[in-house]
Amino acid sequence: MSSSGGGSSGKELVEGSSSPTLSRYESQKRRDWNTFGQYLKNQRPPVPLSHCNCNHVLPEPPAPCTCPLRQAWGSLDALIGRLRAAYEENGGSPETNPFANGSIRVYLREVRECQAKARGIPYKKKKKVAAATTSQGSSSKGNCDDSSPSTTMHYS
Q: What is the model's pTM?
């Protein structure tokens, strides 16, 4: 009956809040967290959050499963980041956070490398060549770097 509050979802923000609506990030984080909670409830038997570990985050057969390859690595990384934050905001301790587990980072790295390989683009960072000035004049082949000094001229 009262029009104060303005929340039609029944979940009103705490009074004194500087923003009447959640940011895009916070809204997505809440949706992701609710979806993950539903996933845990749908497991047979249901998994309470206190028993959740990295095995509930990673797919069962990590190697043959192509599901993560359908989702861009950056999106997976962002999703894990949001769930990591939401876990701790919802009472989980940082020490038991399944989204902060080292195996999750390894898994994400493998997905990133696999997707880069599938695109034909290696993700590995290029190492800087320390001895670039030792072979002046004879290093004109094999380099596709256009940022090289202008002393390399081709007049043949």
A: 0.61
